[in-house]
Amino acid sequence: MFTSEAKVEVRYGETDQMGVVYHANYIVYLELGRTQLIHDLGYSYAELEDIGYVSPVMDLTISYKAALRYGQTATVRTWIEKHERVRTTYGYEILHEDGTVAATASSVHALVTKEGLRPVALKKIAPDWHDTYAKVVKQQ
User: Fold this and answer.
1) What secondary structure letter does DSSP report for 13?
2) Cα separations (Å) of 116 from 40, 108, 122?
3) CDD domains given for it (predicted)?
4) Cβ(10)–Cβ(65) under 8 Å?
5) Burial class (CB in 10 A: 0-12, 13-18, 19+), 6
């Protein structure tokens, strides 16, 4: 299975009064992981936006396991769980430096036009990208 990894330095401003990462900041970490995965596969989400498409989150599930704290370095592991015509599901693990799982997650993204938010198939606008995703999913 193709898995991408992104390192995240936990910043003080991301923590709450208990000294742990505030739950909503994990979503930012997921975005970093997803962006790294796309980059590692040779593509750029920014270029997708430049040609008039966006990929909004349609569904997000996250389970918190062991709190991250200021000063720690987390690793976000990201992979493609499923790739369909206009939707892609990404899977994630956020890990402590010692490998302990801090959180697990999945997110479902649709591909839509920036103007009008009409669904569009990745195969139609970026066939190579679609083929790469399909190949990665098939290898799992």
Assistant:
1) G
2) 30, 20, 17
3) 4HBT
4) no
5) buried
| Closest CA relative to residue 90, chosen from 21, 24, 4 | 4
Please name each of the domains of the chain with its CATH number: 4-138 (3.10.129.10)
What are the backbone angles phi and psi of residue 115, rounded to the nearest 5°?
-95, 120
pTM above 0.90, yes or no: yes
Q: Say which residues have a Cβ less than 8 Å from residue 13's Cβ, sequence separation at least 6.
A: none
H runs (alpha helix) in 63-126: 122-125
Alpha-carbon distance of 30 to 24, in angstroms, equals 10
Per-residue pLDDT of the chain (140 residues; tens, 9 = 90+): 899 999 999 999 999 999 899 999 999 999 999 999 999 999 999 999 999 999 999 999 999 999 999 999 999 999 999 999 999 999 999 999 999 999 999 999 999 999 999 999 999 999 999 999 999 999 88
Task: Tell me the β-bridge partners of 108.
Answer: 59, 89
Tokens linked to 110:
């649709």
Contact by Cβ (8 Å): 51, 129: no
